[in-house]
Amino acid sequence: MQKIKEVNLKVSYTSLLDFQVTVLVIYIIILLAVYLAPLAFSCPCIMDRHTLRPRPDIIGRRGAPMLAPENTIVSFNRALQNGASSLEADVTISVDGVPFLMRDRTLRRTTDVGKVFPARQFEDASLFNWTEIHSLNAGQWFLKSDPYWTVETLTARDRLRIGNQTVCSLVDMLRLAARANGSALLDIRRPPPEHPRHRSWFMDTLWAVQKAGISPKRVTWTPDTDRGRVRGLPQSANEKLSLEEIRQRGITSLTLHYSKASHTDIQEYLAHNVSVTVSAVNAPWLYSVLWCSGVSSVSSDAPQVLRKVPYPIWLMSRSAYRFIWLTSDLVSIALVIGIFCFQNYHMIRWKMSGMQNYNPEQIVLNAVANRTNRDLNVMKEKLIFS
Ligand SMILES: *[C@@H]1O[C@H](CO)[C@@H](O)[C@H](O)[C@H]1NC(C)=O
Ligand SMILES: *[C@@H]1O[C@H](CO)[C@@H](O)[C@H](O)[C@H]1NC(C)=O
Ligand SMILES: *[C@@H]1O[C@H](CO)[C@@H](O)[C@H](O)[C@H]1NC(C)=O
Ligand SMILES: *[C@@H]1O[C@H](CO)[C@@H](O)[C@H](O)[C@H]1NC(C)=O
Predict the structure, then answer these.
(1) Helix 170-179, helix 201-212: angle, nearest 10
(2) Is residue 247 within 6 Å of ligand 4 at its C-beta?
(3) What is the pLDDT of residues 286-342, one digit of tens each?
(4) I need a surface site. Which of 148, 233, 252, 355 has the fewest CB within 10 A?
(5) Which of 216, 264, 221 is CA-nearest to residue 240?
(6) Cβ < 6 A, ligand 1 pocket
(7) For the chain, how big is the Rg over CA atoms in Å?
(8) What sign has the CA pseudo-torsion 113, 172, 73, 299?
């Protein structure tokens, strides 16, 4: 019986020891991983100040759509007033060949087409002629639906101006850009094959550029389809391409959504002289990170927010970063060792004080109690005689 108990005790004792060792090893591995993790991070804003590139240009994406209805003159004006140096717009060609600015396929969301042409409201925007399009109101929807909860902040005069906006033609937008010494980025939607301007979309757009009197070098066309015809004009591809494709197609600029533009990709493109524009950048932290990455421009719905970022947030030199990293590691190691020692010290003291409560004689007597009476008598005699 006793032997079996002993064996059991031994087994459970060694398995307890195994468990403790495993926990300790896991703990040390996690601790090491946490300490060394900064080696694996590549944050673009850990760099030396003198290698920081110039501030990325801000492109007003459909103007300043949070402050005024997208793709209208008021909105483009607002973007320029808020520090945008370039304007981005979605171009559609009307049935009579006038390029105008409309983001959706239909006119429903951003005009009152439902009231003016109720029977045709689901038609493609490019199937209307310019007279019809120009008769629509393109501002009331903004005041009514208040998509960014900003209408409250507008003055009465702003609301009046917004309320009477019409659909903007490409010529008017480019004229505004030319007057402000800015540039333009056009997202062109080619008309469908059954459209009368399906073949002449390029000449229609080029006509608008010439009529506006803006230098064609300041107007970037995207997507980069029909390269043969757009030859000589700046074009930007709006998809992620391999360096091989970029070389073959002679692309010098890329427009990418921020979710598709990683730091390493951007570095690679820049090293091959491909300028990168990142789109949908509305938050100061994202703007800061891209600034550190070296992108040449960002396209934003909120130029009024980005203009208030005077310098990248969190820019830190490598040596400062290393210093902070090492110091915090050392402090934390000291703390861990300190807590470990403190706890063990108390445990040992507690065990020792527990031991002291046992009287050696009591232990002997306790052991004796289990023996037979005869043995006990013999032992008592021995004790007395000794
Ligand atoms: C535009 O369409 C309307 C019919 O909706 C027509 O009366 C008008 O003449 C057209 N304008 C042009 C310039 O073609
Ligand atoms: C819109 O209103 C402003 C004044 O508030 C006026 O100057 C302008 O001509 C109006 N535009 C249109 C298209 O009615
Ligand atoms: C227009 O912008 C260019 C650079 O984009 C600059 O060199 C030039 O001086 C500017 N002109 C004026 C009148 O601001
Ligand atoms: C990029 O341009 C610079 C100067 O403009 C040139 O020295 C460099 O060789 C170019 N790099 C590549 C990969 O084409």
Answers:
(1) 40
(2) no
(3) 999 999 999 999 999 999 999 999 999 888 888 888 888 889 888 988 998 888 888
(4) 355
(5) 264
(6) 96, 129, 131-132
(7) 38
(8) positive
CA of 109 to the centre of ligand 2 (A): 22
Q: Distance (Å, rounded) from C-alpha 91 to C-alpha 319?
A: 48
Q: State the distance from the centre of ligand 2 to the C-alpha of 140, rounded, in angstroms.
A: 13
pLDDT in tens, 139-178: 999 999 999 999 999 999 999 999 999 999 999 999 999 9
Which whole-number Å values give the CA distances from 261 to 254, 275, 290, in the listed order?
10, 12, 10
User: Taking the model in full, what pTM does it have?
Assistant: 0.78
| Domains detected in the chain | 2-39+318-385 (no CATH), 52-306 (3.20.20.190)
Three-state helix/strand/coil letters over the chain? CHHHHHHHHHHHHHHHHHHHHHHHHHHHHHHHHHHHHHHHCCCCCECCHHHCCCCCEEEEECCCCCCCCCCCHHHHHHHHHCCCCEEEEEEEECCCCCEEECCCCCCCCCCCHHHHCHHHCCCCHHHCCHHHHHCCECCHHHHHHCCCCCHHHCCHHHHHHHHCCECCEHHHHHHHHHHCCCEEEEEECCCCCCCCCCCCHHHHHHHHHHHHCCCHHHEEEECCCCHHHHCCCCECECCCCCHHHHHHHCCCEEEEEHHHCCHHHHHHHHHCCCEEEEECCCCHHHHHHHHHHCCCEEEECCHHHHCCCCCCCCCECHHHHHHHHHHHHHHHHHHHHHHHHHHHHHHHHHHHHHHHCCCHHHHHHHHHHCCCHHHHHHHHHHHHHC
Whole-number Å distance, alpha carbon 334 to ligand 2 midpoint, is 71
pLDDT at residue 357 tops 80: no
CB of 161 closer than 6 angstroms to any ligand 2 atom: yes
Cα 288 to middle of ligand 1, angstroms: 49
How large is the greatest C-alpha to C-alpha distance in the chain, in angstroms? 131
